[in-house]
Amino acid sequence: MNKTSEIQLNTHLKSVPLFSNLSDRQLDILYKAGAIQRFEKNCIIVNQNDSGDTFYIVVSGSVRVTLLNENGSEIVLSLLKEGDFFGELSLLDNEPRSASVITMEDVTLFLLTRRQFYQLIITYPDILRKVLKEICCRLRNADEKIGSLAFLDVYGRTIRVLQQLAHEQGTKTRNGIEILHAPTHQELSSLVGTSRETVTRILKVLKENRNLISYKGRKLILREYANKPPL
Fold first, then answer.
1. Distance CA 118, CA 84 (A)
2. Where are the alpha helices (H) located in the chain, listed in sequence order?
3. Pick from 45-49, 129-133, 145-149, 150-154: least confident
4. How far apart are CA 193 and CA 171, in angstroms?
């Protein structure tokens, strides 16, 4: 990696919320301890049920965390973007990977081994607090997803997923909440737990009949009055 790439990487690491309290010197030590890997779109980085000894941080690009069955169909648990991390559960409990992680575009990841990860959280306990807080947040999101699958119809689940994306990735504007890199209909159907055709029909209703959403390329705009719990 050339000097310019090193500087860019250090800049990315500095913007990762997990490392927000580290000094430039500490970030430099961290950078030298870890490793960089790049993956093309649609690569499987982590396989569900495989053993795991690596902690991953998304430097650029995005990935989806998913459950796959024998037939290849999937349920998407979450979408992770720049600054997010995954792989921490297997490092903390020594159990196999709980889900698969697949790239949604070309991705650059920063990797730490189990030994490096443990050294990191021992040296900087605040990082462990942030990791545990994120784990709790993901558990709450999983509870909400289970509840929506049990109690909401597919229309309500679609609205709920759009609301969650707006909360996690959206930017508030005068037109509503904008999601710059909205998931495709196929990706959205996996998040909702239904077919792509069904999601396409629902999005058409939300756009044309209800005026709750609009698209501009990959940018999705969710109207303010749509960002309320579904009835």
1. 18
2. 3-15, 24-33, 88-93, 114-123, 125-151, 154-169, 185-192, 196-204
3. 145-149
4. 25
SS3 state of residue 53: coil
For residue range 69-121, list pLDDT tens digits in order.
777 677 888 899 999 999 999 988 989 999 999 999 999 999 999 999 999 99
Q: Given the structure tokens 């921490």, which residue do they identify?
A: 88
Q: Which pTM value belongs to this model?
A: 0.77
Residue type, 17: P
Quick: pLDDT tens for 159-188: 989 988 888 888 888 888 999 888 889 889
Which candidate, 3, 98, 2, 11, places its Cα nearest to that of 46? 98
β-strand partners of 80: 63
- From 133, 98, 100, 127, select the one nearest 112 (Cα to Cα): 127
Here the tokens at position 161 are 């997923």
How many angstroms from the chain centroid is the CA of residue 9?
A: 20
Exposed / middle / buried, residue 28 (Cβ in 10 Å: 0-12, 13-18, 19+)? middle
pLDDT at 227: 58
92 residue type, one letter: L
Residue with tokens 């737990």: 193
Kindly report the length of the chain: 231
Task: Tell me the one-letter amino acid at 176.
Answer: G
